[in-house]
Amino acid sequence: MPTVSVGRDRLFQALGRTYTKEEFEDLCFKFGIELDDMTTEKAIIRKEKHLEEEEPPEDEEVIYKIEVPANRYDLLCLEGLVQALRIFNGLDSIPTYNVASISKESMSKMHVKAEVCIAETKRRTLVAIGTHDLDTIEALLNIINSILMYCAELVESAISLTKNFRADELMEFYKSDMKLKKFLHIIENSPVFPVIYDRNRTVLSLPPIINGAHSAISLKTKNVFLECTATDLTKANIVLNTMVTMFSVYCERKFEVEPVEVIYSDGKSYISPDLSLYQMVVPLSYITSAVGVSLPAHEVACLLNKMQLYAKHSVSEKNETSFTIYVPPTRSDILHPCDVAEDVAIAYGYNEIPKAKLPSLKPQSLNQFSDLIRAEIAMVGYTEVLTWILCSYKENFTMLNRKDDKSTAAINGNPRSADFEVVRTSLMPGILKTVGHNKDHPKPIKIFEVGDVVLLDETKDVGASNHRHLGALYCGATSGFEVLDNFDIPDPCSIVEVNIENFL
Amino acid sequence: MAEEAVLGFLEKNEEIPDSGKFAEEKGISHDEIVNIIKSLNGFRLVDAQDIKRERWVLTQEGDLYAKYGSPEVQLFLAVPPEGITREELQKTFMSRLPDDIEEKLKSSIYKIGSTQAIKNKWIEMGKSQVSRKVQHVDDRVKDLLIQIQNGEVVGAEDIDALRRRKLINSQIWKGYSVKKGPQYAPKRKKAATDLTRENLQRGDWKEIEFKEYNFLAKGQPTEGGCLHPLLKVRRQIQMIFLQMGFEEMPTNNFVESSFWNFDALFQPQQHPARDSHDTFFLKEPSSTRMLPEDYVERVKRVHESGGYGSRGYGYEWKREEANKNLLRTHTTAVSSRMLYALAQGPFTPKRYYSIDRVFRNEAVDRTHLAEFHQIEGLICDRGLTLGHLIGVLHDFFSRLGMSKLKFKPAYNPYTEPSMEIFSYHEGLQKWVEVGNSGMFRPEMLLPMGLPEDVQVIAWGLSLERPTMILYGVDNIRDLFGHKVDLSLIKRNPICRLGL
C-alpha cells in the first residue's frame, strides 16, 4: 500500500486541532487509512545518507507516514489528505473545481507530435509528471517525439551546465546520477525519446527522466504549469486532475484552473484538464441493501457529502428514491454504485452496522474432543475396541475387587441373562474381557476405548447420568501392575481409566 | 553373606557398636560390610550411625622402615667399631638393602640414613672416614612405626616427628554403629518392581511385596506418529466451516492463468500486484491453453469501457497478459472459477470454503514466506448485505476464540465494500489484524452471468498466523518447512479450536 509522509504539526494545523496518537489512529481507522510510522525529517535524511541514528532532539519536525488505499490518488499529498479529512469531519464543504473561461484563441497550446513510446513497467513508466514555472515558458509548447539516437541534433542539457548533449551522450551522462539512473531503462533502448520544448526549443523536461532547470519551480514562482506524459491516456488524465486540483487549493481564485489546448499531429485536439463531474445514478434501495441498514434519503446524502460525493436525490413516479451522484475529478476510484455504497458505509461507520445472523450449526464439543483423543491414542500404537455397555454384577464389581455399595450402578430390571444385569460403571470389564479372549495375540497387547459409563446421579431429572471415559490397557510379558486372575489373563497388565469430561 | 551376618547378629543383639571390629570378627572385608549396612539403611531395615576416626597409617616409606628397620640404624650397623671409609660405607650399606628396592631409591635412603644418624649423634662423618660415636642404638623409629601399624596409641611428639619425616599419614576411617531399623526383619524382603508372567504362574504374586508406584515418574517415551501442528489447525478450521454449512472447493491446481487469478476478479492489468515483484510467473507452461472465449470478451469489455453500471478502467486490455500462467497468489482464483461455473446453470445459493497453498514473490522473513496457506470462505446468495458479512465474521472468528472484533475500511481490487478485520488479543493487549473481507464487485460477478440481485460476501486469512499466535511460535520457519525441529511437532498438543 502506498504511503504519504506529512509533517504532523502541519497536518494538525490544517485539520484545525491537535490529536493524541490514539485519537488520530482512531480517526484513521474509521476513514480507512493507517498511521504506519512516525519519524522525523532529519531521521529520513540520515537514513538516506546512511548516517548514524542518533536520538532525535525534541525540536525536530515529526513526520507521520500514513498508508492510504492504492486507489486513492487524491490522498497522496498533504493537501488531498487534509481536504478529505476535513470534509469527513464536517469542517468543509465539497469544493467545486472550475476551468477558467478563456477563449480558445487565447489558450496556451501544446502540440503533441507523433506518438510517444515508452517501455511498460512501473514507476514513472505509466505516468511522468512535470511541474514548471509557467512564466519561464514561452507558450506554444512542443512535445517532439524526436531525437533519433544518431541524429546530430543537440539537446540542451537539462541540468544547469551549459554543455549541449546528444541524446545517447545524455543517457550516458545520467548513468552516473544516483537518483536518475534507475529510470533510464524506461527509454534507454527506445529509438525515440519524448522531449517537451517551449517555442524557443528550450527543453522543459525529458519525461520520464528529469525536468528542466530552465523552468524549474522556485520560491518566486507565481504561476504553475503542469503536464503529464503517459502510456495510458486515462491514467494521465487521472494524475493530471489530481495534481491540478491539489495545486488549485493555493490559487488566487481558489479551485480555479487555466486550461490548455492539446493538439495532436493528426489534427485532433481537446481542452485539458477535463474537470467535469462524472454523474452516476444510484437507487437508494441499492445502497441500503448493500450496507444492510435502512437509511432515509437525506441521511444518505449527508453521509455522502462527508465523502466528497455530492448527492442529489429524486423520487421517480413509482415512488423509488434514487440519487444522482456527482463524482469529483479527485475521486477516480468511484467506478460503480458499489463504490458509492462503500462510502456510505464508511461514513456511517462500519462498526455501527448491526450484524445480521445467518444460520449455522454448533458442534457437540464432547464428541469432537473424544474423536481428537481417540486419534491421538491410536497414533501412539493403541488399537481401539468397542465393548458392551451392559455387563454382569460380577464383572462390574467382584471381579474388579470393587464393592457394590448400591449407589453407583444403574441396574437392569429384566435382564435376559447375567450378561445384561448392570449398566457398566467402568470401561475396565469390557477391556479386560477383550484381552482374555485374545490370549494368543502377539504381545504386547495395547488397546483402548473411549465411551460412556453410567453412574447414579441425584442431580439429574432421571437420577442417572453418562460420563465419558477413556480406558487404556497394556498387557505384556514383563510389565504391568494389575493382577487379573479373574479374567483369565495369564500376563500382567497395566490399566488407566480417566474421565475425559474434565478436560473440556 | 555379609547381609546375613549383620541382620543375623542384630536379631539377637541390640547393636553392632563398631563396624570395623565387627568386620574383623566375622572375617569379612570392612568395605563389604559398609556396603551392606548402607543398603540396609536405605531400606530402613537397620539404623546406622556414622563413626569417624582419625588414625595414622604408614606411608610407603614408613612401611619400608617398619619392615626392614630405619635407615639410620642400618647405617649405624654398617659402620664397624674400627671405622670405615665413606665409599666403603655407602657400598656396604647399599648392598645390604633388600633387592626389591630400586637403585635410585637406595642412594636416597643412604642419604636419609646418614643425615639422620649424624643428627642423632650416632656417627661422626669426617672427610673420608666415618666412625661410631656410641656403642649401641635402639631402632626407636621402627618400633613406633610397628606400634602404629598395630593400631596402638603413640605419643603426640613422636607422631609429629614421624609425620614430619613423612613416614605416617593421617587417615579418616569411616565406620558405622548399627541398630535395628523400623523395617527390621531377620531376612530382607526384596520389593518387586514389576509383575511377571512367572509370578502369575508360580502364584507367588500373592506374597510378593511391590515397590511403591511412582505416579510422578514420566514413564517411557511412547513410540508412534504424530500429525503436523499446522494441519491439525487446518482440520479444526475445516470442521468449523462444515458446521457453518460451507462446501469445500476443489483447489488442487497450483498453476493458474492470470485470467482467473486477476482479470476475472476485475484486477486491472497494470495493478502492481501483477508485477513480477509480487507474483511468480511461470516459464513453463508460460501460457494458458484455453479460456471460455465469450466470457473473456465480457471481461475485456468491462475492464476497458465498463458496463453493468460501471465506468470501467479505461485502458487497453491485452489478451497476452491474461494468458500468462502463474503460481496462484490467492485461492480467490478458485472461487472465481466456482462462481463462474455456478452462473452457467440456474442459480442456487452456495457457501464455499477452501484452505490451500498460495504463492507470493515476497521477501522471506520471520513472518513471511514465499508459500503459505490461505483460508477463504464465501457466501453467494440474494439479498446479502454488509451486515450479513459482519455477522458471519463474528460467528466464524468467535469459534476461533476471537469474539471482540473491529472492522476497518480497506481496498481490494475485487471487493467493494472491503473491510480489514481486527481482533483484540488479550495476551498482547492490543488489536491485531486477523483477516480481510468484502463484497465482490458487480464488475466481477455480472460478466460471469450471475443474476443482478445476487451478492457474494467473502473473507480470507492465513493459516499460519493464527497457528503461530496459538502455539506461541514467533518465527514461521520454526513451524513450517524443512528447518523444523521434529520434537516441536511431536510435543504439539491436540488442537481444540472450534470445540
UniProtKB/TrEMBL annotation, chain A:
Q: What class of enzyme is it?
A: ligase
Recorded superkingdom: Eukaryota
The EC number of this protein is 6.1.1.20
Name any cofactors this protein relies on: Mg(2+)
Q: Extract the SUPFAM superfamilies matched here.
A: Class II aaRS and biotin synthetases (SSF55681), PheT/TilS domain (SSF56037), Putative DNA-binding domain (SSF46955)
Spell out the InterPro entries in the cross-references. aa-tRNA-synth_II/BPL/LPL, B3/B4_tRNA-bd, DNA-bd_dom_put_sf, Phe-tRNA-ligase_IIc_bsu, Phe-tRNA_synthase-like_B3/B4, PheRS_beta_core, PhetRS_B1, tRNA_synthase_B5-dom
Provide this UniProt record's keywords sorted from A to Z.
Aminoacyl-tRNA synthetase, ATP-binding, Ligase, Magnesium, Metal-binding, Nucleotide-binding, Protein biosynthesis
The UniProt record lists the B5 domain at: 275-355
Q: What is this protein called?
A: phenylalanine--tRNA ligase
Q: What taxonomic ancestry is recorded?
A: Eukaryota, Viridiplantae, Streptophyta, Embryophyta, Tracheophyta
UniProtKB/TrEMBL annotation, chain B:
Kindly name one Pfam family recorded for this protein: PheRS_DBD1
Protein's recorded name: phenylalanine--tRNA ligase
Where does the protein end up?
Cytoplasm
Instruction: Extract the SUPFAM superfamilies matched here.
Output: Class II aaRS and biotin synthetases
Q: Which UniProt keywords apply?
A: Aminoacyl-tRNA synthetase, ATP-binding, Cytoplasm, Ligase, Magnesium, Metal-binding, Nucleotide-binding, Protein biosynthesis
The family classification in the record reads: Belongs to the class-II aminoacyl-tRNA synthetase family. Phe-tRNA synthetase alpha subunit type 2 subfamily.
EC assignment: 6.1.1.20
